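Exercise 3.2. Students should predict the tertiary structure of the chain below and write it as structure tokens, then compare their answer with the key that follows.

Predict this chain's 3D structure.
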Amino acid sequence: MELRVNGEEPNKFHLNQFSRTLISWHKNNGRHNLPWQKEISPYKVWISEVMLQQTQVKTVLPYFKKFVEKYPNIKALSNAKLDDILILWTGLGYYRRAENLYKTSQILKEKYRYKFPELYEDIISLPGIGRSTAGAILSLAYNKKYPILDGNVKRVIKRYFAIRSSKEDEKNLWYISESLLPNKNNNIYTQSIMDLGSLVCLKNSPTCYACPIKKNCMSNKLNLTNVIPAKNIKVNKKKTLKLYLIIIQNFKNKKLVLMKKNNNNGIWANLWNLPSFEKKTEYKKFIKNNNLDSNIKKYDNIKHNLTHLSLDIDILKIELCKIRDFDNYSWKNIYDNIGLSKPVVMIINKLKKEIDK
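Answer key:
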């Protein structure tokens, strides 16, 4: 495939200079103290890259630290239960990622004897790993010549070559990313282009004066840095889902609440949840069938945004004088260490404050 950008073919010297400049810049300006950069290993890079999918570095840092402290290697992770992994993931969101880590750990245990594979074909076949994540693992952990194309790298490439269309062919962007790779020091180069996008070539208000490649950056030359990448017109396509969560609390021991573990489907798969209903008729039927009519009170309302869904959650509260059994539910202590969604964590924290007064 012939590399063409805006109808022109960049010369090889220009492409090689790009990677050399970034590698040199990274020595004094890039990030060197991220926890997954210390005693670097394929395992640490894999965990960090999965956590960083659709999540900022500053958010990931405390979760990564706790995760590798409890599961320092593949063997430790493969011996964990999914529930225990979800506990550490609580609050980070996109819980399917945690499930994929668990599934992959089982494959690494059975097929690779606790070793992370080194071949692209093997890595990309693992659950939750796409082309960019596979490329990051191969370049950062193994120093192999593989491209990445995360949001930061896309932005750097589009600005550098003044690619204006927001509908630029993804295949072409991958080819450009691959063409920019150096013949050596791919681990440093990959980190440097990610750092450039994260620290300098920002989505809003890029600090072009500090950019090491501004001299040859076409967007800088043409004064286009504020219009490239093209801004997507925001259309509010989020569906709003109404939810009703019911706190059923023991009056004498308020630390106990009724909960049920979600199944493997839905927005909070495999997490513990309060009795949850999407329709008012459903929760009213639950209340009637369990003789709870006279005890229900309004407790709170939470608005919670997911990627493609807005949740409007009404929280109701019932206090029972005696603990009794409910089909398919269990009594859980609010201080138990269990996997919970962010809204349920917020509710539990409010209950804790009331108890600790």
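Discussion points: The longest helix spans residues 12-29. The chain has 14 helices and seven strands.
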